[in-house]
Amino acid sequence: MADIYLNNSLSRKKEKFAPIDPPSVGIYTCGPTVYDRMHIGNLRTFLLSDLLVRMLRLNGYETKSVQNITDLDDKIIKKAKEWGGPAEKVIEKITREFTKRFLEDVQKINIPLRRREDQPKVTDFISKIRKYVKELVQKGLAYERDGSVYFNISKFPKYGKLSGVKKRELKSGTRTLSDEYTKNNVQDFALWKATAEDDIGFDSPWGRGRPGWHIECSVMSQDTLGDTFDIHVGGVDLLFPHHENEIAQSEGKTGKEFVRYFVHGEHVLVDGKKMSKSLNNFYTLDNLVEKGFDPLTLRYLYLTAHYRDPLNFTWESLNSAQSALNKLRSQVLAAKNQKKRTTLSPEKQVKLDVFRKKFLAAINNDLNTPQALAVLWEMMKSNIPSEDKYDLALFFDEMLGLKLAEPMAAERRPTAEVKKLAEEREKLRSEGKFKEADKVRKKIQDLGFVVKDTGQGPEVKSAQNAQT
Ligand SMILES: [Zn+2]
Q1: Whole-angstrom Cα distance, residue 267 to residue 456?
Q2: What is the 435 CA–ligand 1 centroid distance (Å)?
Q3: Ligand 1 center to residue 217 CA distance, Å?
Q4: What is the Å distance from ligand 1's center to 83 Cα?
Q5: C-alpha distance from residue 69 to each of 63, 122, 450 (Å)
Q6: Cα of 67 to ligand 1 centre, how many Å?
Q7: C-alpha 365 to ligand 1 mean position (Å)
Q8: In angstroms, what is the span from residue 122 Cα to ligand 1's centroid?
């Protein structure tokens, strides 16, 4: 098998990948909290685990890729209270609805659905979580206070091995973990939270309560993949405290190494700013589709950046991605239509092998997808026979997942927003306000459309079609 290199957050270095039990590889990804639509930043993390799986399979490994669904937590309960009605029923309604939406979104960007058992839900794991917490208490790593149970960080000397966060730093309050319960030390975190009798909760040796957030990932990952597994994936925002706490719980319980490689994906920025639900500057996949984009355009855009680099999302960059994807698809189609099988000269055979090797070297080098895309473009422009070009493009697409053999996306029709802007521009022009009209034209351009003034009045067209 070829050498694979992954950047391991545990060592902060690129390391040669060596699975515990080849050819099988276990991967766990922190999944969605199903109380709202995913934003496109969440989708970038989920794409990262899909790319890892595809890369490993292309190298001959068998993967078991697990991703949890958080269907019970404070945010969900808060939302249920807003919606009103019997709590348990409302929670079920919310989580069923947003799980469905989540699964639709990932499928639209060509992430295959997982089997049910590879997609564990918190509510199915309550008794296993309770048992796990009980064991941590018995081992002296956790303590009960007022019906809640906390992990005692001072009993786990390796705390901070992932994030490098120092216990003293935590104590001095420079980085406090927010939690509204009483604790011995500020850094201790809740494994089990006491709840009021009339609140959502479950019986436990410590009274009525529900799991803390971090514990679910330790329990579900180890239950599905074993005490020690190969790769843990998540957004970089989960590195601390979430993943640090997962390590403390899991290694505290088993005394064994929890995870061999932690792989963290960087954020998506929108117009240079950090995207978050609280800042209200996040987009969902539907927002892109509403503007006429093929969802796979987002996948293409994400492939153009390395997963460890922040990616700045703009409508302009998405528009370029759509043009590039359309161009690729038309080239692949052209190669397919030239059916004539020509004999492969030794020189061209060598070229073919070089393209294949270069592509694999790129993805095996810590998932260097920008470079892999460059190899694809170079190959499409080369003089190798069309039939081989087509075959190789489809082979590369097993990794990229861009559905290159599918027809080009239909021409984007001007959306209601664009039409309105065009009318506004026309009105300004008729009033002689050309400067303002130009500003509106710029807005239309940013949305990926151009305005052409014809004898019959202005015509709005998709920018990528206007270019060709
Ligand atoms: Zn997690």
Answers
A1: 46
A2: 51
A3: 5
A4: 26
A5: 19, 7, 42
A6: 9
A7: 26
A8: 11
Distance 154 CA to ligand 1 centre (A): 22
Residue 360, pLDDT above cutoff 50: yes
315-357 pLDDT per residue, tens: 999 999 999 999 999 999 999 888 676 677 888 889 999 999 9
Cα angle at 66 between 60 and 68, to 5 degrees? 165
- Do the beta carbons of residue 329 and residue 401 sit within 8 Å? no
Report CA dihedral (299, 300, 305, 307) to the nearest 10 degrees. Answer: 30
Residue 362 identity (one-letter amino acid): A
Distance 60 CA to ligand 1 centre (A): 27
Nearest-angstrom CA–CA distance, 62 and 177? 38
For residue 326, what are the contacts with CB-CB under 8 A and spacing of at least 6? Answer: 408, 409, 464
CA of 333 to the centre of ligand 1 (A): 42
Both structure tokens of 260: 């061999």
Distance 216 CA to ligand 1 centre (A): 7
Give me the chain's average pLDDT, please. 90
Q: Give 60-82 pLDDT, tens digit per residue.
A: 999 999 999 999 998 999 999 89
Measured CA to CA, the distance from residue 263 to residue 28 in angstroms comes to 10
> How far does residue 404's CA lie from ligand 1's centre (Å)?
33
Q: Give the C-alpha separation, 430 to 275, whole Å.
A: 39
Dist CA 195 CA 208 (whole Å): 6
Q: How far is the CA of 259 from the centre of ligand 1 (A)?
A: 13
Write the pLDDT tens digit of every residue in 216-273.
999 999 999 999 999 999 999 999 999 999 999 999 999 999 999 999 999 999 988 8
- Centre of ligand 1 to C-alpha 235, Å, is 10
CA neighbor of 9 nearest in space, from 288, 238, 337, 318:
238
From ligand 1's centre to the CA of 45, what distance in Å? 12
